[in-house]
Amino acid sequence: MNTLVVLTFKSVDALLENGGTGDWKLRRRNVERCEYAVCTRNRHDPRGIGGPEPHGAAFLVGKIADIVPAATQGRLLVRFSHYALLDVPNTWD
Fold it and tell me: What is the CB neighbour count within 10 angstroms for residue 5?
């Protein structure tokens, strides 16, 4: 089973509001092989801190339901059908 792991500054609320994790420049065929997406915290992004987790910690896993164009041209939104919150430090490493 393949899993997409992303480093994001976005909050859980923002991810759920969007229906998944998005604005990624990804190869669609690679993501289509994945069953789950794990979101890890990026606390170094200048756009802000989306949650209390330390940098690199996994905080959410979503079951991939679909891959659709994002609002930003040439980027993708990975939609979730289900999700669970996590607290796994040093996942991005």
Answer: 14
Give the separation between CA 87 and CA 60, rounded to whole angstroms. Answer: 8
Please give the tally of structural domains in the chain: 1
Structure token pair of residue 61: 């896993």
Residue-range definition of the domain harbouring residue 76 = 2-88
Amino acid in the structure at residue 48:
G
Reported as a single tens digit per residue, the pLDDT across 6-29 is 999 999 999 999 999 999 999 999
- Amino acid symbol at 58: A
SS3 at position 63: strand
pTM score > 0.90 for this model?
A: yes
Ranges of H-type helices in the chain: 12-18, 28-31
Domain annotation covers residue 93: no
